[in-house]
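ARCHIVE CARD
CATEGORY: sequence design from structure
SOURCE FIELD: tokenized fold
FIELD CONTENT:
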């Protein structure tokens, strides 16, 4: 039986067992798509990444990203997390502690800036090479709120739209951070409102009162 090395990284945090966990199979050569999906289902994390040689020699690596249910063409936290894992393993060429690599994903090449941080995990930031899409969502505040188990008054008036920067979502702005935390999708209403729509996945956000800590507080709900 073949053996594959993997690392589980906590992304977007400086503390163990915090942030958003990510499984990274550092060399996924020899695995079929079905095997990758089965492994991602076994990890049961939001995403699992399989690192492969690039198709274009000018690029650094190719990534295949899986949720427990499906393969994704792109996702942000796996892109950042995988770049940091590969840098921590010494695989990323850095000059004076910094460098840029290009990762191939389903949406195309993703440039990623990587920086070593002595005594801490590496830092990474990616740049999207495609323009974001935005599509109008003809939905009422009552229906959007009911779908999220909220009151219509908690939904910012008219601030919902379909959009994509690689992954499609219905973006919904809420008036308060606590409404983002309290939101609970109602499956039967969710299916009625977004079944067959441009996207059935939801991305909630609210502007934070303390801009020094963060600009937005957000949550994502995947239909599948």
């Amino acid at each position: 039986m073949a053996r594959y090395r993997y690392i589980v990284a906590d992304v977007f945090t400086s503390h163990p067992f915090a942030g958003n966990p990510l499984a990274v199979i550092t060399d996924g050569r020899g695995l079929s798509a079905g095997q990758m999906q089965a492994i991602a289902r076994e990890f049961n994390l939001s995403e699992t990444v399989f690192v492969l040689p690039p198709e274009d020699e000018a690029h650094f690596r190719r990534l295949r990203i899986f949720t427990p249910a499906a393969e994704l063409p792109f996702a942000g936290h796996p892109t950042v997390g995988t770049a940091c894992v590969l840098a921590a393993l010494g695989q990323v060429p850095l000059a004076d502690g910094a460098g840029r690599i290009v990762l191939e994903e389903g949406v195309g090449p993703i440039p990623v800036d990587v920086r070593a941080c002595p005594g801490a995990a590496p830092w990474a930031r990616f740049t999207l090479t495609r323009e974001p899409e935005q599509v109008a969502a003809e939905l009422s505040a009552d229906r959007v709120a009911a779908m999220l188990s909220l009151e219509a008054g908690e939904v910012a008036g008219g601030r919902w739209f379909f959009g994509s920067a690689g992954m499609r979502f219905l973006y919904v702005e809420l008036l308060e951070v606590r409404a983002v935390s309290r939101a609970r999708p109602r499956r039967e209403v969710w299916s009625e409102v977004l079944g067959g729509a441009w996207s059935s996945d939801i991305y909630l956000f609210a502007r934070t009162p303390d801009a020094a800590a963060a600009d937005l507080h957000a949550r994502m709900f995947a239909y599948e």
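CARD ANNOTATION: The chain has a mean pLDDT of 95. The chain has two domains: 6-126, 133-221.
SHELF: design records, drawer C
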